[in-house]
Amino acid sequence: MSLLANQPPNAASQQVEQLRRGPSQIVTQLVQGWERSFDLTWSNQHGVTPAERFELLGKDAAELFDSSAAFVGFLVPLLTGKDDATVARITSKAAKMPAITKHADGTVTID
Prior knowledge:
By secondary structure, this protein is mainly α.
């Protein structure tokens, strides 16, 4: 068969291609989700400030920060040496986070 003829891929090669793309797609979704959450947390959108969001989150606010730290703690080592531009973007954003105080009851205030 000629190399110029359209050859349908076989099932094995399709599966291998999905396996190759899978981890990258998952990581991309995680990074995008974390960035959207971070940006929403710290922006003034539609007249709502971060402090107002924390007040409405109440006792769930500390969990938001714990989850965010866990995501960064997972993503940075995973991507270091593989996607250093994304690592730099994540760590740069995380470093810009204002100082907060997490209270024993789960509430958060901006210092």
